[in-house]
Structure formats: C-alpha cells, structure tokens
C-alpha cells in the first residue's frame, strides 16, 4: 500500500493558521518582547512554565512559521544550545513572491536547454547574495547551523537531525510553484542551500536536497556524519537529486 506524498505545507505566511491557545500565544508574546534570541531555559523563567511545556509550544510555533530556531554561537567544546526568536511580521511577505517564482520557473522551463542546471545556478547565486558580507563560519557545524537559519528565515521551518548533518523541511513557501514546476523550483532551493554554504566557506558539494522524501516533508543533507563517512563517497549527483522530474511523483 503506497502512501500519498502531499509534500511540505505552505510556509512563511499566516494564511490558514489555526488560532493559538492562550498559553501558546503568551509564550509568543513573551518572545516578541525580547531584544534577541533566548534559550528554552531563559524563556521558561520569563513565562513561569516548565521547560518541557515551553519547548512544546516553541516547536509548534517554529512549525507554524512564527518563530525561528537557531544555534547559539559556538564557544568551546560541545554542541551549542538552541535559541529562539520571534519572526518579524514582515518576513511573512516571502509568500507574496510565490507568483513571481512561478513565472520565472515557467520561463526557465520553456527557454532553457537544461532547466535544472540553470535553476540550480540561479539558486546558488541567490544563496550567495543573501549571505554576502557574512562572516565566514567558524566550523562546519557553524556553517550547517547558519544555512538552516537562512532557510528558517525564508519559511522552510527546518527540523535539524540529532547529528546536525541534515534536516526535515516540513514547510515550503513556494509549494504551489513547486507543484507546477517541481524540477525547476526544487533545483532553485537546492542551489539556495549550496550557495549559502559556499558563502560561509563551507563545503557546498556536501549539500543535497531530497524533495518529497517523506509524506509531509522534504529532506536536506548538509554533509555525511563521521560514523558514515567511511562508507560513502559523497552525495548523489546534485542535479538529479535536486528535484523530481516535472510532472513526476505523487503529491
């Protein structure tokens, strides 16, 4: 029995969001009142709630595109803590560009001899432009975290894997455009992550997007975990992995 793959949910906007509970809304309001990012522990103290309760609310708010989750700066050994900040309302305007993305994707699909390659190159340029002037990453882990932060800003609501080398992307701000031109738009998104990684001085060749890899999400690989590196030569061909063939796949 096959599972129908509907793909990620729309991201980056407030349309169709269910109303927040009183407690979840209070957590969001408290977060909006902070000058910068805060940890779960700090926010728990501010809200007077248990850390597990606050973490549950934050996970839901990240999934709804209302909150950004990012790693704290790397200091010393050990994995840095997660920090959270409210997404500024104007960032929800990303979805307004979906129509333009559809038009541009259609133009590439019709006029390019190699739509995937051209879309990948356009995405790489976009990623480099978004992080132009950024300080180089201090470590591969820092680079991976900052690429996920970038995708979170745009509206993909990434859910990082425990090993930090990949993430689920349960939301897509351009999902309607993807359904019209999947190979092109998905290649743009793959290029976006690659370009962002390159701009930070990371290894862009380790970046691979797996569209519709799960019934409700895409997957992004940002490198090979050390334990698996010995048995792998690297990610699969980028252009072939960047997106499903136009018109293919079940959604």
TrEMBL record:
It holds the Pfam family HTH_20. Residues 1-21, 227-251 are annotated as: Disordered. InterPro entries: ArsR-like_HTH (IPR011991), WH-like_DNA-bd_sf (IPR036388), WH_DNA-bd_sf (IPR036390). It comes from the Bacteria. Gene3D superfamilies: Winged helix-like DNA-binding domain superfamily/Winged helix DNA-binding domain. Residues 227-244 have a biased composition (Low complexity). This is Transcriptional regulator. It comes from Streptomyces xinghaiensis.
């Amino acid at each position: 029995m096959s599972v129908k793959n509907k793909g990620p949910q729309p991201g980056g906007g407030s349309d169709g969001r269910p109303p927040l509970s009183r407690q979840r809304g209070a957590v969001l309001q408290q977060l909006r009142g902070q000058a910068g990012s805060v940890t779960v522990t700090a926010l728990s103290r501010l809200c007077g709630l248990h850390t597990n309760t606050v973490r549950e609310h934050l996970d839901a708010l990240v999934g709804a595109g209302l909150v950004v989750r990012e790693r704290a700066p790397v200091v010393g050994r050990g994995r840095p803590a997660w920090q959270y900040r409210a997404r500024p309302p104007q960032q929800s305007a990303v979805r307004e560009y979906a129509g333009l993305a559809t038009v541009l994707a259609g133009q590439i699909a019709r006029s390019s001899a190699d739509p995937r390659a051209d879309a990948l190159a356009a995405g790489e340029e976009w990623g480099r432009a978004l992080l132009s002037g950024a300080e180089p990453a201090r470590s591969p882990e820092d680079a991976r975290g900052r690429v996920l932060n970038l995708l979170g800003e745009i509206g993909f609501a990434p859910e990082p894997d425990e090993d930090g080398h990949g993430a689920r992307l349960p939301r897509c701000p351009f999902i309607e455009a993807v359904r019209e031109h999947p190979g092109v738009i998905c290649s743009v998104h793959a290029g976006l992550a690659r370009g962002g990684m390159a701009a930070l001085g990371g290894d862009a060749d380790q970046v691979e997007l797996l569209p519709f890899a799960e019934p409700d999400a895409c997957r992004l690989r940002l490198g090979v975990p050390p334990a698996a590196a010995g048995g792998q030569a690297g990610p699969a061909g980028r252009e072939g992995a960047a997106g499903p063939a136009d018109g293919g796949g079940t959604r």
